[in-house]
């Protein structure tokens, strides 16, 4: 856009000129006074007689106004910061020059008639003789500059309002005089510039009287100068920066409305002149050349153009666009451009005006956001002018048209840059904008969408290249300057070329001197396009543009920039791998030539290495020898070059195969390495100094070094097959083939002939030893080429070939490998021959016993082994354990986490071949059932392969279970001792003085007797020997306890052998006594069952005569659920005593079977009757049933007893009675029962019979020992159910009768009593 006349394409922004302040920028005053010499003599001078202001306040206001200059803002309606005004701000001190309103007459011209004065016009009008448009021109571009730089819309004058009262009147009068003079000068000039005044107050006081005085002075000045209230502004003194900016902001907002009115008046004046419909006459009729003046169509174009410009000042873009389009159509109509001959200067002026109008139309469309319309409008103007030039001018096949095409593309890019379109900004990564809603229904072509700026710059570069081509086609005769050519030739070629906005042929492409630098123009445009493409990640387009730019730089022999531009492309973009061979070849040759010119040895080597490929076309007379790459390059040191995989498509390819999918550690696996050359057929052989094969996994790297073989390997065609033996790396042997980034150990080395000829394939068979188990994959192959001049390394990443995995059997025969991943081998662990055995392993181990496990580690290897042991116990809260190894210290495990206990690397020393080593593992007693996984891992090393660990694992399931389970029953019994009386003072317990707790008083409370019956069963998998059964009563502060036990275990302590799944019984007689008689609370009874047992092999003989040793006895504690005793509710207990009137040793014997005592129990001796009741039979079995009622409360209670007769038994005793009980007392009632029925029918009167049965007087132990001390005796009898009812008289509640002795039981329907059968 810089090639167009100055100001012709600038944005139309209202012009604000500040006047009366000291300016420091020279551009401010020069831009206003830069009038042409022809107009400067007639210019109108506006001068102020006062000195320019230099105060800080004036500078601050002026700085704020200049900072709001909108000249550089984007030409878009969508500003990031909304603005209420837009000004083009310039400054002048105290004088400005305005262009003359009327042009002067030509010198020496005499008016034809003194009575008719001539009408003078503007110097920019085609009606004025001094104008360049006279007499038939259209628009002078300087007219645009007139309103942009010369004539302001608002003249803003600054004055200082002094605070000195003695000078205030004088200064105010000077201000009024100066303002009136400036107003008069503006009026005489004929321009309608608005005048505004800014008064900077110097009054520092903020009092009310001072403020009123300033306002009065301002009002006097306003009335004296005839100013509008909107044109006079007062800036108070002493205000803050924010207050100053607020005043300036309000002032600019007000002035913007004034400026808009100014341009509205100018637009109205242009429309008024157009509506006249006549063409005005010039000041002086034309007399030379042609007498043709500007037609009415031309005047309409002028007026439409002016109307559009003034509408653009007012930001009425729709109005401006309509006027521009109207002016454009009239300009290119048959009434104007079609009538102008192409040789006339007016032809190029018309084309220039068409371009200016088209550019302003594009700006209006972009302002309104009509992006697709702007692209189509650009294309429309291009096609319209091409048609016009082809028809009326010299056509479009010349350098002038291509120059215009390039300029037109750049104009579009510049317009987009000034519009600041955020949707096409680089962060958005958009390449083009979609059509707007108004164009959605139309079918647009791709070039009718608005693309980003890189598209337009590249298009411009293409046209500049075409311009250069046309320029180079100019004949030599036309390239000479007119002074060096014959006159006839000059006259002949005068109108042969179109020179619209471009130089003549002899300046475009001179014959003996430089002309237009087309190459530099192309490079600038391509670099700008490349930057746009890169910002939007269009890598391929940027690369293509860079190639074009590099060609231009090469033509200019700018080799450094060529290398700088092409090196990133050549290294980063895989042209060849993607099939762009032609591009890669051109790029490589160009880069090689540039690198040789600047002596870049590394780049020359890389380029020559790439050019060896057969994919590129063979260049004649090129050596194709990598060893000759640096013949014409000067180097200071020996270069070293590294080529990474994928940098470019190398002419060398490689493959690697494992013959087997898997192998075992300690063995070898066959492998095959193939290296193929795809070099140019006539190129020199490449001698590889070495190749390095690296693996990802547990294999060592492999190096093959070049060694010329005297005997040639088997060769068939172009394939050479060789077997390479590998040896381990010797200590101190250098291996420079391994680069720093390879890592890992390098231990395997072989030698082979590594001479690689064009089209040849080298195949090497190798046996690679496997060391550690795991997955191993061939990773990369590094080729090393060593010459006297340089070192080169190329790294090739090995790839799988799918189904093309061919294994070379011979140079001419191959086979396909079946496994899908030939680059990988799965190394299995070496089969261990170390055995882990447990001679005695039990299915179950039991809680509360120490566990000791013995293992044998047997070495089945052919040689001795150095071994270590890992032991892991996994389960829920595993205990710590101890491992004992002969000849080593004991090792204790450590807790790794809550579910794992581990012993790591316990040394076991050396185990000889075919020998075993005993290991002992001890666990402490475990108190709960658990299940653990016990893992033993032996890691050993053989002296034949000390670097390869071998491991053997063994897993054992350790089950720990409870050996016993039990159930419990607590039966009530009647305590034989009488209860203490609540009314006896001796039973009152007085606590000792001083709180002596060491000797607590004896319990004086109630006593109760209970029988705890336990039945335990063995859940072991084998018989266990139970040596003792006992209980532990946990002490309680509420009561004291004592007990006696009754078991059937032998007293010798040898115990009893309890088979699995059998139930054993033990009874414990408990006596509980409250501490005081006043305690009425329940007392807890916490008991644990203690079982002492041993395994059958724990020291006792099989017959059970000898007890096991104490250390072999295990103690199992089974907690018993808590019982609650000593309640306050009344309790009814039933006990029986059996009387057999047998004459034994001269007296009657009375016994109570099953009571555990030889004495008869009689709670009330006063009710006891003589046993010798005079029964003549002397052999009648009767039973005494005693009903005892206990009242443990503090209340007086009354109970009623009732006994109903029965057909099964006879009884003696009260049939109905009432018993009254004092608090804390008990009483008993006795009945004598005698069986009279056989009970076979199961019924009998009111009291039902239960049935017949037998009762044992004593239970005999398994070893023959008597529990009761007498011989076992069985009696026949029946169980009867007495109809006995005990009722609380007060609450009318029937109490349950509880059996409290042998011979009494609780049946389904009540109490049942066993009676011996009569007879």
Architecture overview:
This protein is 24% helix and 30% strand. With 1319 residues, it is α+β, with helices and mostly antiparallel strands. The protein folds into six domains: 15-73 and 86-104 and 120-272, 3-Layer(aba) Sandwich (Rossmann fold), CATH 3.40.50; 296-574 and 583-592; 640-828, Coagulation Factor XIII, Chain A, domain 1 (Distorted Sandwich), CATH 2.70.50; 834-959, Immunoglobulin-like, CATH 2.60.40; 963-987 and 1001-1127, Immunoglobulin-like; 1128-1319, no CATH class. The strands form 14 sheets. Strands 8, 10, 13, 14, 17, 18, 21, 22 and 25 form a nine-stranded mixed beta sheet that branches. A hairpin with a 2-residue loop joins strand 35 and strand 36 (945-961). Helix 17 packs antiparallel against helix 18, helix 18 (539-555) packs antiparallel against helix 19 (559-572) and helix 20 (581-597) runs antiparallel to helix 21 (601-611). The longest helix is centred in the first third of the chain and has 34 residues, at 241-274. The model is unreliable at 739-745, 1141-1178, 1241-1247 and 1256-1273 (pLDDT under 50). It comes from Humicola insolens (Soft-rot fungus). Residues 271-292, 709-744, 1098-1120, 1135-1181, 1237-1274 are annotated as: Disordered. Residues 710-722 have a biased composition (Polar residues). Residues 346-614 form the Trafficking protein particle complex subunit domain.
């Amino acid at each position: 856009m810089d090639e167009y006349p100055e100001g012709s394409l600038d944005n139309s922004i209202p012009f604000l000129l500040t006047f009366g302040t000291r300016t420091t920028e020279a551009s401010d005053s020069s831009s206003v006074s830069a009038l042409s010499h022809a107009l400067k003599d007639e210019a109108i001078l506006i001068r102020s007689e006062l000195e320019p202001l230099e105060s800080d306040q004036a500078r601050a206001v002026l700085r704020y106004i200049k900072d709001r200059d909108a000249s550089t803002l984007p030409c878009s309606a969508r500003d990031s910061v909304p603005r209420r005004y837009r000004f083009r701000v310039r400054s002048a001190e105290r004088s400005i020059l305005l262009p003359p309103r009327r042009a002067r007459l030509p010198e020496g011209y005499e008016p034809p008639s003194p009575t008719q004065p001539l009408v003078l016009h503007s110097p920019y009008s085609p009606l004025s003789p001094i104008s360049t448009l006279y007499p038939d021109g259209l628009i002078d571009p300087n007219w645009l500059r007139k309103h942009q730089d010369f004539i302001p819309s608002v003249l803003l004058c600054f004055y200082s309002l002094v605070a000195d009262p003695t000078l205030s009147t004088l200064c105010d009068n000077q201000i009024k005089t100066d303002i009136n003079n400036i107003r008069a000068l503006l009026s005489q000039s004929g321009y309608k510039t608005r005048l505004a005044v800014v008064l900077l107050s110097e009054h520092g006081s903020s009092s009310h009287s001072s403020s009123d005085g300033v306002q009065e002075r301002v009002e006097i000045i306003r009335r004296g100068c005839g100013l509008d209230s909107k044109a006079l502004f007062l800036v108070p003194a002493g205000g803050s920066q924010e207050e100053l900016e607020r005043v300036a902001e309000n002032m600019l907002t007000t002035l913007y409305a004034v400026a808009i009115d100014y341009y509205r008046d100018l637009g109205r004046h242009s429309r008024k002149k157009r509506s006249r419909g006549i063409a005005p006459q010039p000041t002086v009729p034309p007399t030379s050349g042609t007498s043709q003046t500007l037609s009415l169509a031309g005047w309409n174009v002028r007026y439409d153009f002016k109307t559009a410009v003034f509408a653009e000042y007012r930001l009425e873009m729709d109005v401006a666009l309509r006027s521009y389009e109207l002016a454009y159509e009239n300009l290119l109509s048959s009434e104007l451009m079609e009538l102008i001959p192409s040789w006339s200067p007016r032809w190029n002026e018309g084309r220039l005006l068409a371009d200016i109008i088209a550019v302003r139309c594009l700006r209006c469309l972009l302002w309104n956001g009509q992006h697709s319309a702007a692209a189509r409008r650009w294309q429309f103007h291009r096609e319209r002018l091409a048609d016009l030039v082809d028809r009326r001018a010299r056509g479009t096949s010349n350098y002038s048209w291509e120059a215009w095409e390039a300029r037109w593309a750049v104009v579009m890019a510049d317009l987009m840059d000034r519009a600041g379109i955020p949707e096409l900004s680089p962060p958005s990564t958009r390449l083009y904008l979609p059509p707007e809603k108004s164009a959605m229904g139309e079918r647009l072509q791709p070039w009718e969408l608005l693309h980003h700026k890189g598209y337009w710059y590249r298009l411009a570069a293409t046209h500049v290249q075409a311009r250069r081509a046309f320029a180079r086609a100019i004949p030599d005769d036309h390239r000479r300057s007119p002074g060096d050519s014959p006159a006839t030739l000059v006259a002949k070629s005068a109108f042969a070329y179109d020179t619209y906005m471009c130089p003549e042929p002899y300046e475009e492409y001179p014959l003996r001197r430089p002309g237009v630098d087309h190459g530099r123009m192309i490079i600038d445009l391509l670099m700008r396009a490349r930057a746009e493409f890169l910002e939007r990640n269009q890598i391929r387009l940027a690369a293509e543009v860079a190639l074009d730019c590099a060609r231009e730089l090469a033509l200019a022999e700018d080799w450094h920039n060529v290398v700088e531009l092409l090196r990133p492309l050549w290294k980063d973009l895989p042209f060849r791998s993607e099939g762009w061979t032609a591009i890669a070849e051109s790029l490589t040759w160009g880069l090689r030539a540039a690198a040789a010119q600047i002596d870049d040895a590394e780049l020359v080597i890389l380029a020559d290495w790439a050019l060896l490929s057969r994919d590129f076309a063979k260049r004649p007379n090129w050596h194709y020898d990598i060893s000759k790459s640096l013949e014409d390059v000067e180097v200071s040191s020996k270069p070293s070059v590294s080529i990474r995989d994928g940098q470019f498509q190398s002419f060398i390819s490689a493959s690697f195969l494992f013959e087997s999918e898997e192998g075992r550690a300690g063995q070898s696996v066959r492998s095959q390495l193939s290296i193929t050359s795809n070099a140019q057929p006539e190129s020199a052989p490449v001698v590889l100094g070495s190749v390095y094969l690296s693996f990802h996994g547990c294999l060592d790297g492999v190096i093959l070094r070049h060694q010329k073989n005297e005997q040639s390997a088997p060769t068939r065609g172009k394939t050479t097959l060789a077997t390479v033996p590998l040896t381990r790396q010797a200590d101190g042997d250098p291996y420079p083939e391994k680069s720093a980034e390879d890592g890992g150990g390098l231990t395997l080395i072989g030698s082979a002939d590594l001479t690689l000829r064009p089209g040849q394939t080298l195949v090497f068979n190798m046996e690679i030893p496997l060391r550690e188990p795991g997955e191993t994959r061939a990773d990369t192959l590094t080729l090393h080429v060593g010459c006297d001049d340089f070192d080169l390394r190329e790294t090739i990443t090995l790839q799988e070939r799918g189904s093309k995995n061919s294994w070379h059997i011979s140079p001419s025969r191959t086979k396909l490998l079946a496994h899908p991943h030939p680059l990988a081998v799965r190394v299995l662990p070496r089969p261990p021959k170390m055995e882990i055995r447990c001679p005695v392993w039990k299915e179950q181990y039991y809680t509360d016993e120490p566990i000791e496990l013995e293992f044998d580690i047997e070495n089945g290897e052919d040689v001795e082994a150095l071994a270590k042991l890992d032991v892991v116990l996994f389960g829920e809260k595993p205990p710590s354990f101890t491992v004992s190894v002969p000849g080593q210290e004991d090792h204790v495990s450590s807790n790794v986490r809550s579910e794992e206990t581990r012993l790591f690397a316990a040394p076991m020393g050396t185990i000889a071949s075919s020998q075993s080593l005993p290991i002992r593992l001890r666990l402490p007693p475990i108190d709960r059932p658990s299940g653990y996984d016990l893992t033993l891992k032996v890691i050993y090393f053989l002296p034949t392969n000390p670097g390869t660990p071998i491991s053997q694992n063994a897993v054992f399931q350790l089950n720990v279970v409870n050996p016993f389970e039990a159930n419990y029953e607590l039966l009530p019994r009647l305590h034989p001792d009488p209860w203490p009386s609540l009314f006896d003072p001796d039973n009152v317990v007085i606590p000792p003085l001083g709180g002596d707790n060491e000797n607590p008083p004896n319990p004086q409370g109630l006593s109760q007797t209970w029988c705890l019956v336990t039945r335990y069963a063995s859940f072991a998998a084998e018989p266990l020997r139970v040596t003792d059964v006992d209980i532990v009563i946990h002490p309680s502060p509420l009561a004291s306890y004592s007990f006696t036990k009754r078991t059937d275990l032998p007293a010798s302590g040898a115990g009893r052998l309890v088979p699995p799944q059998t139930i054993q019984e033990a009874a414990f007689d408990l006596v509980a006594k409250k501490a005081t008689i006043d305690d009425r609370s329940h007392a807890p009874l916490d008991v644990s069952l203690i079982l002492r047992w041993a395994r059958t092999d724990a020291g006792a003989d099989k017959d059970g005569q000898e007890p096991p040793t104490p250390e072999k006895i295990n103690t199992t504690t089974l907690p018993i659920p808590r019982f609650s005793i000593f309640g306050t509710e009344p309790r009814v207990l039933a006990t029986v005593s059996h009387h057999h009137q047998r004459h034994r040793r001269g007296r009657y014997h009375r016994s109570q079977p099953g009571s555990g005592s030889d004495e008869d129990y009689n709670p009330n001796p006063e009710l006891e009757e003589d046993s010798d009741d005079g029964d003549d039979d002397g052999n009648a079995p009767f039973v005494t049933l005693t009903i005892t009622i206990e009242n443990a409360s503090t209340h007086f209670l009354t109970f009623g007893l009732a006994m109903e007769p029965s057909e099964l038994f006879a009884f003696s005793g009260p049939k109905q009675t009432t018993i009254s009980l004092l608090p804390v007392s008990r009483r008993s009632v006795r009945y004598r029962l005698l069986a009279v029925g056989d009970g076979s029918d199961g019924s009998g009167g009111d009291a039902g019979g239960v049935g017949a049965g037998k009762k044992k007087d004593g239970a005999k132990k398994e070893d023959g020992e008597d529990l009761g001390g007498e011989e076992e005796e069985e009696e026949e009898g029946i169980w009867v159910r007495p109809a006995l009812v005990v009722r609380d008289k007060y609450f009318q509640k029937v109490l349950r009768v509880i059996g409290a002795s042998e011979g009494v039981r609780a049946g389904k329907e009540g109490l049942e009593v066993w009676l011996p059968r009569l007879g």
